Amino acid sequence: MHKLIIDKLFDSNKSFKKEDFLEFISDLTWKYPDNIIPHSPSTDSDWNKYFREDIYKYEDKTWEKIAIMIYKMPSASKVEKARSHQRNLISNYLKNEWVYDDIDSVLVVFYSDNNPDWRLSFVKQEFKYNKETKKILNELTPAKRYSFLVDSTSKNITVKQRLTELLKWNKSISDIESAFSVEKVSQDFFKKYVILYEKLDNAFKNDKIFSNIENSDINHWDKHFRENFVKKLLWQIVFLYFLQKKGWLWVKEGWKWWEWNKTFLQDLLKECLTWWDSKKEFWGKNFFNDYLEHLFYDNLNLKRENDFSEYFGYKIPYLNWGLFEPMNGYNWIWKENILLSWEDNNELFRTIFSTFDEYNFTVYENDPLEQDVAVDPEMLGKVFENLLPENERKGKGAFYTPREIVHYMCKESLKNHIINKPWISEEKIIWLFERKDSMYNLLWKKLSETERYEQFWEFIDYAWNIVESLKTVKIVDPAVGSGAFPMGLLKEIVSLRKYLQENILLEDNVSEYKIKKETLENCIYWVDLDPWAVEIAKLRFWLSLVIEEESGDKIDPLPNLDYKIMQWNSLIEDIVVWDTVIKLDIEVKSKKITKKAEADFKREEKKFNKATQWTMSLFA
């Protein structure tokens, strides 16, 4: 019974249906919601209307409470992209309900009439309350949201499994919150990814033709050629899964990119398995040779007039990136390079796609306040770090840093950069960051021009200087890993610039895409000893641009980052940024830091010993 309810609600072939959601809520709470309260629409600064319906307030056996509601959004894009707006709608609601009804969490649906995709979210916010004054003293945390994006082109397996399991047990609020755990998805995806990697590696290992390529003169020096080839192949597929979620992987002539098919790879495999295609190199029956090699090496990596592919018969974007270059000069055109037997080949890729289809892929990177229960680009960094052998991980220092720590360190670094400027005080900078975070995390309406002048007049003298400083700042990461820290700084720079340009400088049509591209091209540099770390970092940065690109007519090639993102050893080499040579001297500096730490430790140890001796004398 539970499974039927869930399958009906999350059917990939239909849009959101309120009656199906009410049936799910009835099973979740053991009470059919028969007192639905519609509210007058609220509007944002662009006069978009948001319609809210309160479904039910549920109290579990521990007297925890949760509100359940539905929001009808004004447009399709507001469901997928306006994530902070959605979270802040709920934050404003919680600030009132927590005072009067002790509710600090909400289960909410966001949908629109013109979009088959919809979002199911769990939002929670912690408060501190003064009972005497009946006022919220402070928000201990901004509202945090965890979401399933229910995709009409996906099987939605994760959300179905989680909520079917939820309906089997006593439904406490903590159980509902656990159903939205992102970490469970990360762990599960990585385990299955490793299994796929091992299967693919074993298949190439046992292929005689590939063995000849592996042992050829051009590759004999590379002891890890096969492992790296397989890693790259899987990363290529994962990257394309992200890209096709944007609708950018292929399109027929006359269509806009984002209006087209979002299951391109799966459809290619179906074509390969079901019919012969005389136009293809080997009649379209060997998926790796007839489809993937041509897609990677002769289309995504090759500039063509109007992006049209003669081989496939439709437009495929040129990406201008080394991820799709043949590895070590691999001669993919050589006709004998038919890798793997045909049946094993096709079955192997069927397994890979069916595994990836279990998950929702999103091009949005999660942050501490906004997390999709999905595979995001940060997952590639986790995969890279965890696929390294234990001894290499320790030697390269390749360990995952939680996003909360990255977020804090990047924000503090940017604060210190601006504080060091002579034209603004530390107090004002701290207040500026607080106002910026408050606006984006707790409010959802843009301020009017009058409000901007009234509340932020004292920053008008500094805003232009801060923006210009952010345009020219140089950020260098000497051991980039999977790119977490430069990515964190990119987000902080974009959010601060956008806040200042919109609300202090009063600029219209501030483009996040333009700010990101400027920052990537002018400000961020990084190196790493591991070439795969460099490639993954490139991938994450380009996907962060894909999110903001709105043009459906033409896809710009990847920015050329080769001179900014390099593989080298920052312990022994200098970094050159235009005419400036940055001498890292990491080894010398680390010795100085170590000596200082040892001196500090000895000093504290003496204090501790004296205190211990004094304490023991009291009891002698």
Task: Explain this structure.
By secondary structure, the chain is an alpha/beta fold. 50% of the residues lie in helices and 12% in strands. The chain has 22 helices and 15 strands. The strands form four sheets. Strands 1, 2, 3, 4, 5, 6, 9 and 10 form an eight-stranded mixed β-sheet that branches. A three-stranded parallel β-sheet has the order 11-12-13. Strands 7-8 form a two-stranded antiparallel ribbon. Helix 21 links the parallel strand 12 (524-528) and strand 13 (565-567). Helix 1 (2-9) packs antiparallel against helix 2 (18-29), helix 7 packs across helix 9 (225-245) and helix 15 (403-419) runs antiparallel to helix 16. The longest helix has 33 residues, at 586-618. The termini are far apart.
Strand-helix topology:
Elements: H1 2-9, H2 18-29, E1 37-38, E2 42-43, E3 49-59, E4 65-72, H3 76-80, H4 83-101, E5 105-112, E6 115-124, E7 127-130, E8 135-139, E9 144-150, H5 157-168, H6 173-179, H7 182-205, H8 208-214, H9 225-245, H10 264-274, H11 287-300, H12 342-356, E10 370-372, H13 378-387, H14 390-396, H15 403-419, H16 426-442, H17 449-456, H18 460-472, E11 475-477, H19 484-503, H20 512-522, E12 524-528, H21 531-548, E13 565-567, E14 575-577, E15 580-582, H22 586-618
Parallel strand pairs: 4-5, 9-10, 11-12, 12-13
Antiparallel strand pairs: 1-3, 2-3, 3-4, 5-6, 6-9, 7-8, 14-15
